[in-house]
Amino acid sequence: xxxxxxxxxxxxxxxxxxxxxxxxxxxxxxxxxxxxxxxxxxxxxxxxxxxxxxxxxxxxxxxxxxxxxxxxxxxxxxxxxxxxxxxxxxxxxxxxxxxxxxxxxxxxxxxxxxxxxxxxxxxxxxxxxxxxxxxxxxxxxxxxxxxxxxxxxxxxxxxxxxxxxxxxxxxxxxxxxxxxxxxxxxxxxxxxxxxxxxxxxxxxxxxxxxxxxxxxxxxxxxxxxxxxxxxxxxxxxxxxxxxxxxxxxxxxxxxxxxxxxxxxxxxxxxxxxxxx
Amino acid sequence: xxxxxxxxxxxxxxxxxxxxxxxxxxxxxxxxxxxxxxxxxxxxxxxxxxxxxxxxxxxxxxxxxxxxxxxxxxxxxxxxxxxxxxxxxxxxxxxxxxxxxxxxxxxxxxxxxxxxxxxxxxxxxxxxxxxxxxxxxxxxxxxxxxxxxxxxxxxxxxxxxxxxxxxxxxxxxxxxxxxxxxxxxxxxxxxxxxxxxxxxxxxxxxxxxxxxxxxxxxxxxxxxxxxxxxxxxxxxxxxxxxxxxxxxxxxxxxxxxxx
Amino acid sequence: xxxxxxxxxxxxxxxxxxxxxxxxxxxxxxxxxxxxxxxxxxxxxxxxxxxxxxxxxxxxxxxxxxxxxxxxxxxxxxxxxxxxxxxxxxxxxxxxxxxxxxxxxxxxxxxxxxxxxxxxxxxxxxxxxxxxxxxxxxxxxxxxxxxxxxxxxxxxxxxxxxxxxxxxxxxxxxxxxxxxxxxxxxxxxxxxxxxxxxxxxxxxxxxxxxxxxxxxxxxxxxxxxxxxxxxxxxxxxxxxxxxxxxxxxxxxxxxxxxxxxxxxxxxxxxxxxxxxxxxxxxxxxxxxxxxxxxxxxxxxxxxxxxxxxxxxxxxxxxxxxxxxxxxxxxxxxxxxxxxxxxxxxxxxxxxxxx
Lengths: 276, 259, 354
Hints:
The structure holds 3 protein chains of 3 kinds. Chain A is mainly alpha-helical. Chain A is built from 14 helices and no strands. The model of chain A has no long low-confidence stretch (mean pLDDT 93). Chain C has 2 domains: 4-232, Rossmann fold, CATH 3.40.50; 237-350, CATH 2.40.50.140. In chain C, the strands form 4 sheets. Chain C has a 6-stranded mixed beta sheet, with helices on both faces. A 5-stranded antiparallel beta sheet of chain C has the order 13-12-11-14-20. The longest helix of chain C is centred in the middle third of the chain and has 18 residues, at 167-184.
């Protein structure tokens, strides 16, 4: 009796949202997924995938996207780890201030945020003008529409995610563990390496996954800082669909993007089930 | 070197990288020349004036506001019961439900927009605004479910049981006991969802249509044609508002805990 | 010169609010010193200063004649047992205990020998491969102890090490700790807020209050002759009343007690007509149904049977007092009684209580 009643309550709580998400979200996704396995003539095959990955340009863009993701993730770890360490060891008031500043790039209008890098990296931007004033260069360097520009823009956006994941992992490590290590004769760097680092590895892995998947699927940053010159998967998807109206070509890009992301999340769930 | 000195220098560099660009955009928006340069030449407020006279920005602002408010409310109304069911009950398929409701946060936004355009908007006759509104609600759902679930998890179940034992019905005790005690979580998810929708590009990119554009999309469109500092001025305004909202929300509810 | 000397230490977390001020402390080799005091009295700060986690704003720390004041904690060779144990959750018992030896680049064979030796000494044989999460509270406590001892520290510091254990285990560990300390002859500073613990363990006790030493002495001295109302209260003189001295003899002092008088032992420095405060322990007085010598009348307000004893709350002209009588069953109910003070049960301190 109770069982049945409980099931009814659960169903009535979940059904409205479930129907919404099924119709408007999962169904369309399911359709593009199905579409990716059919040829133009309606035969079931993997030919679209083969076509996508054997096309030199597509493969190059795919690998570039992955490469940029890896570079951004590495920098996020290097910059994020010490920052998270300081934040998690700060007193409550200071911690809150530091965190509220860290999350600003995530909360800011993406066009505004990326536009700032145009001002810094542009032809007449901060860096070029300074270098010229200092006499290092005569004509401006091309800094935007490069892979480096995309990396810088993505790093500003996703470094906060790394820091947040690390801070919440480090907050659960009692301060006295490092003190214990120090009282037993280990220097501060070694205490961090032997105690804090292994105990915050879940946060590191979660942060790295978020930064990497975010980087390979971000749109605004590569669109503004890479333009059509340095395409990534997402700008390619935009180009194929809204510019060239090549719907089926765009579909395969979209599915490849989803699959790359999903494989990572599934791996993560298998290898470190307690991370998410 | 001492640990604290090394870390202090490092932190200053990282924070400069994170928020330095915002200061630069702010300074740049006061320049008087037509072409965006830095450091800016001269001083002028004309770009700020222009922001308010460009009709596409004004319309886009109102559309963005309508969509953000509407989709945030719908996501809260749909998501809160789900969060409650996930936290308070054990039922078969719970894991699957959890995965389904977090999927819009895992699937790239661009793909969501693309899929919705192809197999929903193009096939139906919904007005553009409704399409945007539905798309945004879908991507906000994971945030509301996650934030409200975590507030509910911190809520002592026995308080609800006490209310029920004193004669309140389940529904009633939800409204008079649970809701008030998770209000910070609800406010936090409201703010986060609102900002997420207001700033969204990937989904809106595909779902905007003739006559209806959101603010970030119109900014992108404007940038394709003009290189003057109007976008810098508009960006400065948006950044100032973001800073105010985030700092205020941090003071009052500690928003950074919920991100 | 003593083995450990803290000389005129000043320490603070916030400028202008010193936790320790002009604080000095001495410890002999092989001695077990307890620092006893309520939370916030500066006892943990003292430990952290000795361990090197807090740099004192003034003063110096000398161990065995060498100045340790500016040394980093990892160069001090001081063993530290934390209140939370601070075991490394990702290391096994063996690796937790071996940590300090590894930092000292001890050869693997020696580490093995020393660690297993200690594992046996603290009674953890067979648990060496467990993770801290798989141990009971008492076992974790032993690992923490072994980890601090195995490095053969100059000094062992313990910060409320038993406070997370249940009552029975706490008492067992007390005895064990004392035995271990005697056996390896290590100098030890033991911080606690539990007077029974300090009394049963220590060679010497320092009672700390607001960063100052309130009293210093052997457990016996502090227990029977508390130097101040604060120490008296801490040592179980839970009952107190304000009064004045009627007369002072060579052996006795007579105090005003409401409308009557009570007599107690002579105490130096107390003169006739002094305003004083008087203290007595709940279990050092008795109740009687009939009027006796050296007693004040009162009424039993409440009775709580506690098994081997009964606690009475007695209201008198001097205030309400707690009285504990060791008896198999309560012998008084709510009724008029006489509260009787045996010889020496009252101690007298100059000055009035708030």
